[in-house]
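@channel sequence for tomorrow's demo:
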Amino acid sequence: MNAVESKKIWLSSPHMGGTEQSYVKKAFDTNWVAPLGPNVDGFENDIENYLGESSNVAALSSGTAALHLGLKLLGVTLGDEVLCQSMTFAASANPIVYLGAKPIFIDSEEQTWNICPEQLELAIKDRIAKKGKKPKAIIAVHLYGMPYKVEAIHKIASEYGIPVLEDSAESLGSSYHNIKCGTFGDIAVLSFNGNKIITTSGGGALIAKKPELKNKAIFLATQARDNAPHYEHTEIGHNYRMSNIIAGIGRGQMEVLDKHVTNRRSNFNFYKENLVDFEEIKFLEEPSGFYSNRWLSCITTVSYEMREELRLALAKENIESRPLWKPMHLQPVFADCDVYLNGISDDLFDRGLCLPSGSNLEEEDLFRIVSVIKKVLR
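structure tokens (generated this afternoon):
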């Protein structure tokens, strides 16, 4: 069977659990099709119960919307500086620009590939020296589901009095010393895009420690309509609320979240067990106390050339893989932004590859992927 005829293996495809349609059907049957309703309330409660105490969740139209509102709630405005992990998806940084603020990019550290504490503190000191004021916020990302160095990052943030916006878009189901990701930041965000650990087709959520911040987020997400019999607005709002229909998909997905995490971690273990003898590739290990949902199973190779040889060989067999995120400081749109570098994210981008990681991968899919990789490495 050639590549054209063979089954397509996606990097991370949606995986329905089976009960989603019952929630959606109830929304239709009861005519709750607006951006409010029982599924929205229920989905928020499901996430709050999963994350634990002091989690106040607002279901929104996307993770990007959650980041935008999160920065707004933290007081970010025109001319402010926001420190942002460079190695991430563009959605982590774009909302900074929406608000007229300036992103300052921070490089990664080797253990988790996330924001480097040393570079972060260096940047804070340097911005204070140069600008005479502190950056307004820090965006830290749990990359590919691997928690960032929570204790180190939050200690620095606390010392300088800078709030942390925790980007947990990729890390629902991950934890740091048995505490769920999504609960560490002053505000945190989740994504339910089609490729995430659970999906609502699109959608996201804002998580706040204080209930009043959740309520403010919902107010802003529903066009900032004041409490009046007519349409009264004293603030600029947004159309960011999640609909009751897609929230129903989310309710069904929450029922299989733990299973999805188990399956994705199993994928990672399969790759590692079957490729451990090849010195040309390495896997990102979990430091002690770190628990990754392994949203994506990632490897680093010995060179850019090897990375590309593997990627193209997989593509030839109808198997999707992808280089690691291109760091934001290398993106043309952010070329003029200041950056604090140690070379790690550049190197990871050159040599890193994301392997198919869906929770619906079958064993024969995994054997097929590994077989292609072994042919290249032998």
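heads up for whoever presents: The chain has a mean pLDDT of 97.
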